[in-house]
Amino acid sequence: MLIVLSPAKSLDFETPVKTRLSTTPRFLDRSAQLIDKLRMLSPAALSELMDLSDALAVLNVGRYASWTGQDDHARQAVLAFDGDVYAGLEARSLKPKQLDYAQQHVRILSGLYGLLRPFDLIEPHRLEMGTRLANGHGKDLYAFWGEAITDLLRADIEEQGAEALVNLASEEYFKSVRPKLLGVPVITPVFEDYKNGRYKIISFFAKRARGMMARYAALKGVTNPEKLKKFDLDGYAFVKGESTDTTWLFRRRVDA
Questions:
Q1: Has residue 7 been placed in a domain?
Q2: How high is the pLDDT of residue 171?
Q3: What is the domain extent for residue 186?
């Protein structure tokens, strides 16, 4: 089983990390091509392209300028991303054996790096997969990455002998994957919370739940995706009657 997550806009390069274990992103040469494109943009142009505030545009222009592709000011991806998904994953509290599980079974989709393993070193950046950054392959990052992300995912699936891909990524990021070319079923968990008299997807809670499911898999050492149906962190439970073979519904009823 292989799990895919989205990255996060929020980054943490300040909190000390306890491990020196690291790996090198496998698409680093392609990342450098994107950085070359991004370095051509002024803060005003970047602000317009990514709908950023002036301050964030200036910050990221500086990040692109200082990006080296080396590990001198890089951090492991799973410890650098700091959004809702990663609050649910709580990677810093995982034990070495559980982190090793994540390195083997979790992948992170990335606009800049394509496909990351948890311990791949990344530098501070912002580049969402949906960005319409024109490049030699087309009008946006989906064209830039083409089938490359899918090919690497398929290679990882084959190396592991994985029976399925568990999609815990957002729609924006999973659009970079071509499921029909993976050779295994894609299972997409959906998380709903009860609010105002009905169950619905609440973005903040759904993002955290994706991270929590990846954490659950690491804690339990899950290799058979069927065992994810027992996921019960924070009160979620599998709803068999409203799930399909490839879309699994989880619900909880708490004050949200």
A1: yes
A2: 97
A3: 2-24+75-252
